[in-house]
Design goal:
globular; alpha+beta; 21 strands; 18 helices; 6-stranded mixed sheet; single chain
Length: 642
């Protein structure tokens, strides 16, 4: 599957990753440690200096396991210090699977065609399947941080429990293998099976809300997954359109099987393959940000898929291609001069760009003294409608990715700019935020509804940025390699207040969004924010860190995360991952979070919001799609005129 690689590689993320490589910091050490190098109470820096000692209590054979401590990343600790009781830093997402599992010779159900329990387990994903896939993919070795906890004694450190693997000897008495440590997985603490969802979308929505707002005891575990299975489409994790298509394919497959029926002894007919009913399995994940950022978690979990080796080889091939392109066919002297010039350009970019970003941040702070949703929250509190800590959740498939790309190409050609899919959806989301504010004001002041007093002409949006472009490079493990920037986009425009208007209005908004995002994306603001967060977590008191984190968003109305997935569908243990949706944990002070994601050629949206800010999240996503439809109509007219 040559295309089963995050398309971010095509976004020129490799050069960005190299330029920002120093911002990653705090990676995990390898899975196996030679026993003589391990020290139970040592940090990761102490492992290399530790030497075998005859008095080391762990050298005795009666100890089954030891606990090792490793220093937490500064960004991970920042997430612990900056979160509040009502704004927990817990990214959540779900994967919806369907199809049949890989045949297992050790599984009796794989060797029988009787309709019943064996068939129902054949096309559902269970906790046992998850655990076996996890261990077969060597996840404890690739990403040992998944099996860490935050130290109860010092929250600057992770703790890992390791088995002591005793040395083996050969027949001549010589040591064959040295004593070493192997991580203790204990997946039963993380994976559990639960009842499937009975009410379409509502049960899943409530469970996601509970996972976003319920704290994780980080001293016991940093992540968990809840697995359930039921009839295809029953939960809403897979849309009705996709469910109907899967059901149709399954019915055709069953009809083909019926034509292959063979007479057998003891019964009149027996299916050659066995009829199966379409089922779905939903894997609902959540993890604390101290473990890693959401993009890194998704990238790491791709190691569980059947195409993992091909994905890794594609990433390595892209890296080699990029390195060869940098070197070219230049001589030694020309390469040295080229490197020197790149260094000079990089230093100028960092220096001047950081100064410009800091000044822009100060300007946003001074010109946005209040959040437009503050008046909404105050009005809700007066009426007893403000429910602090409760979340409004929704998700949907927005459009085919190829359609969105074609639209941006047409609009870019017409405007002479380079509009991206990210610009397109940030524009749609900003329009939806504005319509939400307009609805709130009409509810608060129904008289003279179109005389705006609180709906701003501009709003601020916060854009998280993964410094590795959403991929985990070879020989890297989980980490918090994330920054962010705040930028200003249009708020209320003429066509918003009138509920319609000229076709040029949506494209006007899009162009303003494009220019604003382009200026911020070309700056080192994400790297600068990453280092500011590291400094705050390492040297400032917890309360100061929380205040700085809340003020740094410049009273933004919405946080928008853009995640690029795989072009083709991936599989886990033979089952197809039909859909994947992530949900953003709300930063303090920001009432709305939206995730824009592509997977298998489909763009999807998911919204997480305070209930007082977005009472109807389904309507909010419809507003996003309304703005998208206006832009699509504009692009269609431009294409005809070109």
């Amino acid at each position: 599957m040559a295309s089963a690689i995050p398309s971010i590689i095509g976004r020129k993320v490799i050069p960005m990753a190299a330029a920002a490589s120093f911002a990653a910091g705090g990676g995990m050490d390898t899975f196996n440690y030679r026993y003589g190098r391990a020290n139970c109470d040592a940090s990761s820096q102490d492992f290399d200096n530790a030497k075998p000692s005859a008095n080391n209590p762990f050298m005795t054979n009666n100890l089954a396991s030891v606990v090792l401590r490793k220093r937490m990343t500064s960004i991970g600790r920042f997430s612990l210090k900056s979160e509040s009781e009502t704004n927990l830093s817990i990214p959540t997402f779900f994967l919806a699977l369907s199809g049949s599992k890989k045949p297992d010779s050790n599984d009796a159900s794989a060797n029988t065609t009787a309709v019943g329990t064996s068939q129902s387990t054949k096309n559902t994903f269970t906790v046992n399947d998850f655990e076996s896939t996890w261990m077969n993919s060597d996840m404890p070795s690739r990403h040992p941080r998944f099996h860490s906890t935050v130290s109860r004694h010092d929250d600057r450190f992770f703790e890992e429990t390791h088995h002591v693997k005793a040395a083996t000897t050969e027949n001549n008495g010589n040591d064959k293998d040295e004593t070493n440590l192997q991580i203790k997985a204990e997946l039963d603490r993380h994976a559990s099976e639960t009842m499937h969802f009975s009410v379409y979308r509502e049960d899943l929505r409530n469970r996601i809300e509970n996972m976003l707002t319920s704290p994780i005891e980080v001293a016991e575990k940093l992540w968990e997954v809840k697995i359930s299975s039921g009839a295809i489409g029953s939960s809403g994790a897979i849309s009705k359109v996709k469910s109907e298509a899967i059901t149709t394919r399954q019915q055709v497959s069953n009809e083909i099987r019926a034509l292959k029926r063979q007479p057998t002894k003891g019964r009149l007919w027996k299916d050659a393959v066995g009829d199966t009913k379409p089922m779905e399995s939903v894997l609902l994940f959540r993890s604390h940000h101290a473990l890693a950022d959401g993009a890194s978690i998704m990238a790491a979990l791709s190691d569980l898929c059947d195409e993992a080796e091909e994905i890794r080889s594609d990433i390595e091939a892209e890296l080699k291609k990029w390195k060869r392109g940098k070197q070219g066919k230049k001589g030694v002297l020309r390469r040295l001069i080229s490197r020197f010039m790149r260094l000079i350009k990089f230093m100028m970019w960092i220096t001047l760009g950081s100064a410009r970003s800091a000044l822009y941040q100060v300007w946003l702070q001074l010109t946005t003294r209040t959040n437009p949703f503050d008046a909404v929250r105050q009005d809700a509190e007066k009426k007893g409608l403000a429910m602090s800590g409760q979340r409004a959740i929704s998700w949907c498939d927005a459009c085919p990715l190829d359609e969105a790309k074609r639209m941006t190409q047409i609009l870019s050609k017409a405007s002479g700019s380079n509009i991206t899919v990210n610009d397109l959806f940030v524009s749609c989301i900003s329009a939806a935020v504005t319509r939400q504010l307009i609805e709130h004001e009409e509810f608060m002041a129904p008289v003279d509804a179109h005389s705006r007093k609180r709906v701003a002409r501009n709003i601020n949006v916060c854009i998280p940025v993964h410094l590795r472009g959403g991929v985990i490079l070879p020989n890297e493990s989980l980490g918090n390699r994330i920054g962010a920037f705040v930028t200003r986009v249009p708020g209320e425009m003429t066509h918003d207040a009138r509920g319609g208007g000229t076709p040029s209005c949506p494209s006007d908004r899009l162009m303003k969004v494009h220019r604003s995002l382009k200026r911020s994306k070309q700056s080192p603001a994400p790297i600068l924010s990453h280092y500011v967060a590291k400094f705050c977590s390492s040297y400032l008191p917890e309360q100061w860190t929380k205040n700085i984190f809340q003020r740094a968003n410049c009273n933004a109305c919405v946080a928008i995360s853009n995640n690029r997935g795989y072009k083709d569908k991936i599989h886990m243990n033979g089952m197809t991952v039909e859909s994947a949706h992530g949900f953003l944990p709300l930063p303090p002070g920001i009432p709305i979070g939206v995730v824009v994601q592509s997977y298998a050629g489909v763009m999807s949206l998911s919204v997480t919001a305070e209930k007082w800010a977005v009472p109807d999240p389904d309507k909010f996503l419809r507003w996003c799609l309304d703005e998208y439809s206006r832009l699509l109509e504009t692009a269609a007219k431009l294409e005809k005129s070109q």
